[in-house]
Amino acid sequence: MKDLSRLMLTFAQVVKTGSFTGAAQALSVSKSVVSKQIAALEAELDIALFYRNARKLQLTEAGERLYPHCQSLDRELHRALAAVKEVKEEVIGKLSVTLPASMVIAGFGESLRLFQQQNPDVDLHINVSGQQVDVIDQGIDLALRVGQLKDSELICKKLTECHYLVCASPAYLAEKGDITEPEQLTRHNCLIYTGGAFGTRWPFRHSDGKRFSVKVTGNLHSNEPRFLVDALLAGQGVMFGPSLLFNRFIEQGQMAPLLADFSVQDVGFYGVYPKGAMQAKKARLLLDFIIEHCQKL
Asked: Which InterPro entries does the UniProt record give (predicted)?
């Protein structure tokens, strides 16, 4: 079967405009294309749809019976196109986001909540995970990620700079002493995040760019960064993590950044999404909202 729906839509335009020429103008094609499509439709149905003469077209009985169905097809097509346009332009419906727990602590959870509050017709689904979920498989519209990203078919937009820090509270440092060399961490109680890539091996680099790691130990291990941050603020130990996690606490004087000269290279904070995801206005608005939040950090 040929592209029957297209042929039927062309037939509807011929009847509606009263001529092949009028249909060609309405469809932005040549008159010969319209003529060939009508001939193809008649061949497919094995029946004539028009009586033709030099002055006008006249529908046959078969054409008269077919035309209402072609009109319905034309109306449904326009309804379908309108529905797709609504998805692109209206800020309504489901929007799925994933981000690591550390970024919730950094304030991005509040940013997402404010976005939903300002756009109440958006049904916001938030997946908080320390693991990188499969964006395509899980139907994610936008993933927020820290670190070096693997090559993929996803679109990656860098939202802001980010690097890794070692932090401790002023109270902890006052009691245990300052930390000026990464190797000194082996003598300190380190708060171990078990949900990420580093665990008990914290990466650093020398001024010449050479990388190395220090194996740390501690009496508190958790896959929930909020739990570790609370312990850090309480003076229970030293913690390693992305700068976005610590920035606001540092600004408030509740934490002190350590070993800045040895920090690993900037890794960035990214918005990651499938091709075509940002064609929906609601997704574009959310990404812009998050970028604005990043500028305040």
From this structure: LysR-type_TF_proteobact-type (IPR058163), LysR_HTH_N (IPR000847), LysR_subst-bd (IPR005119), WH-like_DNA-bd_sf (IPR036388), WH_DNA-bd_sf (IPR036390)
